[in-house]
Amino acid sequence: MMVRSPTLSALAGVRHGWFTREGGVSDGIYAGLNTGLGSTDDPAKVRENRARIAAAMGVSPDRLVSCYQVHSPDVVVAEHPWAPADNPKADALVTRVPDLAIAVSSADCGPVLFADGEAGVVGAAHSGWKGAFTGVLEATVDAMVGLGARRDRIHAVVGPMISGRAYEVGPEFVARFRDAGEDLARWFRPSETPGHAFFDLPAYVVHRLARAGVGTAENLGLCTYADEARFYSYRRMTHRGEADYGRHLSAIALDPR
Questions:
Q1: Whole-model pTM?
Q2: Which of 49, 113, 159, 227 is the most exposed, fewest CB within 10 Å of its CB?
Q3: What are the structural domains, with CATH classification, of the chain?
């Protein structure tokens, strides 16, 4: 039902998990643990799936909070629970409140979980290419430091996401990175399609995390596109011409101190 990181698991007082599609009640194209509030899945099934995640995180359903993601660099400091209808527009959450599980949604983009166990501060970020490119990871680290975390004590781990083997992009995408002065040879490899390339988003996310000065920046190395049994994938859906796709949640919480 969930994937865990050995690095984060070693931190006392921190609970976390990247939830797969396994263990849910949805069916059809959403089969499994679909948590997408914006999907056309049965809302009752989505609520049940989210309740199962809350239980696995050791919190009540009302204390599992997420955001309305817009591929931005924006971060919210979570100080109390809110209803899904009140989800703030942002792509990352940070908190120092115990028993408040903060979560981000994904289905190919990078779900990154952060923790400074000593300070008792955690974070969760949704990092697709646009979020990484415009600074959502650095903004999450800055927000954690604002809550008392120390940059070099923050452990940041990238969960299941689309790998560089499956993420083909067009020339305008490559040009955007070239114009920003990025090292194209480091992040892109040629495609058989003229002008196209494969983009290693996980490596780019880890690079941005390391550049932000975190103590640990790791990638679990799990590809959502390649592993259909465990993961939903937006790109796999588009290649198949399906009507919609499921979404995962990745969550982190603090134990009471």
A1: 0.97
A2: 227
A3: 2-163+213-254 (3.60.140.10), 165-199 (no CATH)
